[in-house]
Structures are given as structure tokens and as C-alpha cells.
Amino acid sequence: MPRNKWMNENERFLRITKRIQKPDASLHKVPYVDLKRKSDFYKLPKTSGCYWIWTNEKVLHSFHKHPFPAPIAFKLGSKTYSGEIIYNGVADNIRDRAMKHLCSAVNQSWSGISVDVFMGKRRVKSHKKKVFSKKGKVPFYDGKRIRSLKTALLLNLSNGEKKHIRTKTSYFRNGINVFQTKHKKNKFRLYYISGIDNLYRDLIEKKWRENNNTPKLCSYSKGR
């Protein structure tokens, strides 16, 4: 294909983007909110931006088998907590998106992180992911698809969740509630960058994953 003006402009654009600063692996200088109570969600902006979910809770499954971001440790008071970024993304409303991920209702049908087994009574019709299956697209454990109940029982599940998956075809719930018993003993932090143009927002999401690996609960690595 012969070169044209727009190929030249593309090369210039790529040179410019390489010079633009992006967050580092540890998200140094990126604002954050520690989610200790529901009112903490209201400290988050209702504007567009990108975000990262950090926790010290053990999440033993993933939705891809590529390398994950390096652990991130920090001090809270006199204690040091070590955890990992389990998800990152972009949103038109960071507060709303954070609540759908981390302060969700059991029966919500919009997308949220897949950590807990769905044990609601009303069937959810969208964004369903199976916990395990003999075929099809299911999460990974230790780099392999979860094809058996035996492997699924190795995940970080409550006694109630383990009982549930023994008896029924099971799906992940859309999002979690960090204040419920299973999660409230752990720490959750939401890093975010807001008040930026969507072009810059999307570039940060893409380049952070390219440079630092894709978090384990993301089901895509590049683009959408």
C-alpha cells in the first residue's frame, strides 16, 4: 500500500502518545478512596475517567491466562497491606461504575466484577458467566479452564457458595457487596483519574495494561 498523508499523521500521533505521561505499575500519584463504608463511595466523582480496583482479598480465578499486574503494597496506619489490582476499566460515571462493581444488588443485570456465586432467586438474564462447565467459555484456575466441580471448589468461596455449586448449574453474580460477611474483613481501594478527555482516558487504560499486564478479572486485554 502506498504511503499517504494519514499514515504520516498516524506515525506523528504515536510519537506524541509515547511522550504523554501514564500511571506507573504502583499507581503512584493516582487519587484513590479506601472503601470502608457506603458513604466512601460518595467521595468518588460522578464524571468520566478510568479506574483500578485493588484488594487484598484472595481472588483465585481469572478470565484470561496471561500474566497479571505485580502486587501493590501500602501502609494504612501502622499496618502494611499487600494486594493486587483485580480489575481496571473506563467509565462515564466513576462513582456509579464503582458501585455496580463493589456495592451491587444480588439481582443486578448490568456488568460487574465476577467474584461471588449468584444465589439469588430471580434469574438474571444478562452478563452471566458460568463458574465451571465441561465445555465453553469459563474462567481459569491455575492457568486452566475450570471444567469440574472439584476444581471450582478450590476457589475462594463461602460455605454457602460451595453448597450451592454442588447442586446447581452456577453462575457468577454481577458485582459484589464489599460490606457483606465474605468481603468485609478485607480491604478494597478504588484508584481513579477523572476530569480528562476520553481520548486520554482510553489511552491510559490501554497503555497501563500493555505496560503492566491485564488484571485477572478483565475478560479482554486490549480494546472492547
Explain what the structure shows.
This protein has 224 residues and is an alpha+beta fold. The chain has one domain. The protein is built from 6 helices and 8 strands, in the order αβββββαββαααβα. It has a 5-stranded antiparallel beta sheet with strand order 1-8-2-5-4. A 3-stranded antiparallel beta sheet has the order 3-6-7, with no helix packed on it. Strand 4 and strand 5 form a beta hairpin.
Topology, element by element:
Layout: H1 5-19, E1 32-34, E2 49-55, E3 61-62, E4 72-76, E5 79-91, H2 94-102, E6 140-141, E7 144-145, H3 149-152, H4 159-167, H5 181-184, E8 188-194, H6 198-212
Antiparallel strand pairs: 1-8, 2-5, 2-8, 3-6, 4-5, 6-7
